[in-house]
Amino acid sequence: MAVEVEVRFEVQPDQLEQLRQDLAQRSRFGGYEVRRGRSRVQLDTYFDVQGQLAARQWSLRVREKGDSLRVTFKRPRPGEGPTEREEIENPGDGSLVDVMNQIAAILVSENIGVTVGTNIEYAVHSAGAAATLQAMGLDHQYPVETTRELWIVSGEGADIAELCLDETKYRGKEGPATPECRIELELLDRTRRADLAEMKRVVAVTYGAREVFQSKFERAVIHADMNGSVEKAELKLQFGNDHQYVALLRELEHNEQFVDGYRFQRAANRLISDMYYDTKGYDLFRRGAYIRIRREQGRRQLTFRRLKERGDPKGFMSKQEESSIREGDEIRVKWDDICQLMAARYQHVSEAPAPASFDDLPDALARMGLRPSLEVQVNRKAWLVRRSSTSHVPHLTGEDRPIVKLKLDEITYRPPGRSRTATRRECEVTGVEDEADSPQRYQTDQYLAFLLLFSSKCSEFTRGEVKKLTSAKYFEGVVDLGLREQPPWYRTRTSTVIDEPTGGTRRIPARVPSGGISWEYFRFTGSLAMLIGGLLAMSMGGDEGLLAGGSSQIPAVLLQTLGFISLCAGWRALTRHAERGRSRRNSGIAVGLSALAAIAVTLPWTGRDFTANMTGYLGLVALAWSYRKTSHQS
Fold this sequence. Notes:
Blueprint lengths: L1 E10 L4 H9 L3 E2 L2 E17 L3 H4 L3 E7 L2 E9 L6 E7 L6 H14 L10 H8 L1 H7 L3 E17 L2 E13 L7 E10 L5 H15 L2 E3 L3 H12 L1 E11 L2 H13 L7 E5 L3 E9 L4 H4 L2 E8 L2 E9 L10 E9 L4 H15 L15 H7 L3 E17 L6 H4 L6 E11 L7 E13 L9 H19 L3 E4 L3 H8 L9 H4 L1 E5 L5 E5 L9 H21 L14 H24 L6 H18 L6 H26 L1
Antiparallel strand pairs: 1-6, 1-9, 1-10, 2-3, 3-4, 3-7, 4-5, 5-6, 7-8, 8-9, 11-16, 11-19, 11-20, 12-17, 13-14, 13-17, 14-15, 15-16, 17-18, 18-19, 20-21, 21-22
Organism: Streptomyces formicae
Keywords: Membrane, Transmembrane, Transmembrane helix
InterPro entries: CYTH-like_dom_sf, CYTH_domain
């Protein structure tokens, strides 16, 4: 039985080509020599029995590589530092039949699966390795395809380690694959641990890569559960500033047990592009529903959701009903259900024939009376959360079931075809159930228990500045951009939950958009009002009023010229950078403040010339400061 010693690093997919080119040009790797090895494509199929291998951190795979087939069984070996695992694999540990017999003996000793009789050799030769494992009660659930590029790291005339650049696709039973990239360093001589530690340092310093500890099998299980879970309830957490998000992200990335009693398993980073559709009058938005087309890594999905509770929801969470069509599904089956439901519930929405393909979806939605209403870009980091368990049979207790999807999102909203944007960050906590489960299987109490503990833990990183909001990205974006006024249900649907010192909670209905009052906008409109008032006062007459034909003294000319330039720049900055953008409400605020300022500075007893100039000076300072702050915030 061999012992595998390796370390792994996470690489972002958009960095893969740069890393490949850098390694291809290298002859030295830190203090070591490096040379290019062979590239290969390998298809792994991982087997398990109701999560019993995953619970033990074991893995069992069949690997197809070229014209060869290998069966590999791995289990962790106690040790410090690099990941160490015992490994049984043909041909190093015997023939295929010998290895299968060794694996069968280990599984039987742990009461995992069933035996196929004494003649495993006959089963392997007659049906193959994969079929034999299935006959032993194992299920081939997790196919993984990896393109591996290999470099040999050597020193003092001896090969020390393999450096592998892996581009992996985790393929689910349905739907497209989830890609991930890694750097893996595996010792060829396991006594050279000091060299491995130095190579690990070189990778971290040279490429800024983050060390990870999950095997490909563990990653496959996580991706399968992420893609196979239906979201049933959600709550959004917002913090006081960006530094608090960064602190939380750093802690989550380095602490798998961020909350006692739970495991946080990192999922793949995602870059998501959503296009939402609504009627001309935003009827779906006004009724608490949305329909969108999501694009992600070449995949598309149509999703219709509606809030099951509008008004004051119970339990401080948003419950929703969902129907979705993935690219590759039979569109007609679910399309008719979505059409009938929407046509019956929402004004100005009619039924339409099912599109032939996803390329025809926008036209089909247009025939229903829906048009693009909001474009949303999401940069997402996500985790799958389970209860911690020491059981080797978690499937019997349900402890291996995912409870929550945790998402840290950076969001950009944009009206279709326009350049104006609004941005925000949020943490979304979503309760999930398995796609195959009945609706009754979802446990609300487990979700609420985790939510209470997680929000309490977050308070340690945010000095108690945690807002709990019930809403959806579509509703937030429409309101933030000022595309529509709040519907009657929005104030109770989008709300803030405050933790009381006594341990209870209270809800504050939203009276403004869910992000709160835009103080940047108030500061900006106040500055503009002062400038507008000053210019109006000067134009209405005065010894030094340039617009009124007064004297051309240098201070007055310079002041009024700079004031006019700043006024133009201010409106441009307001249009491009203001946190909420323009709306009738905000425009009204600007006009009202300007009128008040103009009246105030022209009262007879204030001294028109002095007040006008002082208003101009103060307006220049305030406008410059608010322009910088507003641009920085955006």
